[in-house]
Amino acid sequence: MASFNKVFDNIKDQVDGLAKKDLKNFSIEGKQDAEAFLTQSRSKLEKWMQLLADKKIDEDEFRWLVESQKAAARMEALRKANAGTMQIEKFRDSVLQIVVKTAITAAIAAI
Amino acid sequence: MKRVRKHGVWLALLLAGFSVGFGFTSCETAGNLLSTTHFSQTAYDTDKELRDESLALIDKARHRTRYSKVASKVKALMQKIDSAIGDEKARTKNAPTVAQWETVQSQLSHFFDLWKTKGTLSPAFVDEGKKQVSALFDTLIRTEEDKRARG
What we know:
- The complex is a heterodimer.
- Chain A is an all-alpha fold.
- Chain A has one domain.
- Chain A is about 90% helix and about 0% strand.
- Chain A is rod-shaped, with a radius of gyration of 24 Å.
- Chain B is mainly alpha-helical.
- Chain B folds into two domains: about 1-35, no CATH class; about 40-150.
- Chain B contains six helices and no strands.
- Chain B has helices at about 1-20, 25-35, 40-60, 70-90, 95-120, 125-145.
- Chain B is elongated, with a radius of gyration of 24 Å.
- The interface between A and B is large, with 43 and 47 residues.
């Protein structure tokens, strides 16, 4: 039977590959989304400041709009947190499958 | 037979060791694998219904409608939102969606408070506010859609 270290190294290599593939994409995507959100916020703030200067909205209304943009950022972060949790759980599912498959294969081969 | 039993023990030790190595106990592992948030058609439909109802109500402010004319409708909407939050809290591993709903609730509540305090709102503010509230609900709806991936 293959030694414990050899089987464990095999599992570790597979999990490392999975982590690089699945979790790295998530961080790149998250960064791109954050940048897009900042760009979008900037144009909205410019528009609202102009409305305030033109007295088309008052200070309370301007403040609500700014707060709503902060709320939008929070909503998006929570959406990402939800997606991230699901991605981590999917990752754990895959890890468990690798462990079971590799360990059983090694055990059967030794019988 | 003795050899097979030996391998069974070895396998169990390997699985247990690996689980501990990855920072979760066997109970947690089972819990994480079985109790993940799943898509709910009912929640999805509620999100859309309450978005449409909220936007329709906000629309009424556009023509300088006085708050007193919509007060009962606002109260009914906020009660429905309370109920939706209660339903979301009952779902397992659903903290991000609950926090999202609380954010929407808070923002809507401030909007209606402003309307109540001032009596009427600026049309330009209503236009912008409606877009903002719509975007908040759309993010909530997309979050539910994301859960489809998990079945």
